[in-house]
Give the backbone structure.
Amino acid sequence: MRTWSLALRNLLRNRRRSLTTLMAMVIGAVTILTFGGYSRNITYSLQTGYVLRGGHLQVQRKDYFLYGSGNPAAYGIADYQRVIEVIEHDPVLSPMLTVVTPTISLGGIAGNFAAGVSRTVVGTGVVVADRNRMRRWNDYGLPLNIGPVALTGTAEDAAVIGTGVARVLQLCRPLAVADCPQQAKAEQTQGNPAPDDIIGLARQESRPAASTDEARIELLAANVHGAPNVASLRVVKAEQQGFKEFDDMYVGLHLAEAQRLLYGGDKPEVTAVVIQLVHTGQIPAARARLEELLATTLKSEPLEVQDFETLNPFYGQAVGMFAAIFGFMAVLIAAIVLFTVSNTMSMAVVERTTEIGTLRAMGLRRSGIRRLFVCEALLLGCIGAAVGVVAALGLAWLINHSGLTWLPPGQVDPVPLTVRVWGETRLMVGSAAGLIVVAVLSAWWPARRAGRMIIVDALRHV
Amino acid sequence: MSLVTLNRVNKTYRLDAVDVPALVDVDLEIRADCFTVISGPSGSGKTTLLNVIGCIDHPDRGEVTVAGQEVRKMSDDALSDFRARHIGFIFQSFNLLPVLTVYENVEYPLLLSGVPGGERRRRIETLLEAVGLADKARNLPGQLSGGQRQRVAIARALAPSPQMVLADEPTANLDSHTGEAIIDLMRRVQREQHVSFVFSSHDPQVMAAADDAVRIRDGQIEKAERREALARETA
């Protein structure tokens, strides 16, 4: 014995108390696992969002990340086609890749010449086919419903803008943007939206709308030589961008058009080569290999690699915040379990004092007495953890099939509320092991007290 | 031959701020293979003497030798092992483990002594047969009468084949008829298995069955008599 058998029978001796203790442990386990599963799902959702838009890694010109937003044209990658070719054909990298695509980020002023309004914008030039391939990435099996990018099948002068941009540029009606009250006429006509020479340049580039339902904007940006250049773009759609700051500034356009705007007749460059991997876990290996390539084969240009966490600090902050909340909850629950199990064990020691004296008199060592109570706590911990995991899986299943939705940060459409417990082996094993360890620790002091009892005092106990 | 030797053993308990001497300069020899009764009024030190002999209490001063071993020099673990091998206990309130069956209660000390499975089973069956409880092997103590429980306690005490069984007022919680049966049983087992029994008791039935009698008063041995002297006294 059967120490285990004896421990189990002792637990069954006071069923109500053991059940109450188990309930505390089960509730603790369910709380931890459900919240852990929920926060894990948010982490995966955020990560997936960033990877779909900007890939796992980006090769950029050195210091572009720090200084390039002010003058992206000055931080272009000249020989980007070769960079892409080297990456795609590298034997180490190629099995890890899903998409390698060039992109341009630019800053400028978008104007609606006809309405006499303008605003500063951030433009992104993309290769539409590559972006559509990037949108298929769903390594975590999330319930995504993402269609092709709005620029799919459009002419090179097509653009997509944020709904905030559409509002300011008074393009709500042709782009069917909701929640778009008309601005007062007086507000629209307060001075010129840009200097006269710029407006003149825009007038030269602007093309009349084919119909009243067509939305056009002129995008003004400084080219690689610092001179202003204008592109006239046909807006095919206004898309909500999640974050208002971004929504108020976003213009998406074809890469070729963006290159024409920034480089004119010069050799076109890009500001980044976006790399999407098969799995996020491949980032360290891919990054190491890329850095090796940049130092050898691609050393002709000063390039560097940035991962999506660096490019999107919000991701790390959100993950850190959820980890902190999870840790705080885990500590609270551990404390509750600790005191509950400790109380149960202390009561058991007091109730069984005579029994402890008897066992010691019969020749059971102090360590044997300690082992007996620790085994009881260990059993409690194991049963509590097992039932807790099963209960958490059941609750997660119920939540996942309840049809509840929520709006994650930075997203536009509500997504199904998902608690990811099943398949999260580390979370389940970690929580269960933590619970068991806490249960054992809780029993240690009462068990030690039981082991150190003076035999004759224990036998005299009434 | 002496199984237990006590040499100038002293033991004092502290009750609140008062020191209460429980044993005072006790010199005593317990013979092997005998039925020894320790008697005396309440508070005379019977139980303390029995505890010291049973190695579950330490004297403040003096030497205690059990089965040739000076027990004061032994560590707690060594003493535990020593008790498991050499000493059986029968308690006034039986002290059976309520969650274990009769069979398992008798088995427990055998597990502590590391007796192998086959030998264990054989010994338990023999003992339960000897105490007349073979048919109650699967019962829990709560399903037995007081006399039956004490018989289980006797079987448990004898299970590891100890050299000595200590019994603290074993018949105190039993009616006289059952008590008599228990004394007869213990006497029979003692003779059959050649094991020493040491009792503390007021019970005349127990005292009548004794080979040796030790009378204690105020922590001091008043009289220690052997069977022959007892027979003369009775005559």
In short: The longest strand of chain A covers residues 97-112. DSSP finds 18 helices and eleven strands in chain A. Chain A touches chain B at residues 1-2, 6, 9-10, 12-13, 354-355, 357-368, 455-456, 459 (CB under 8 Å).
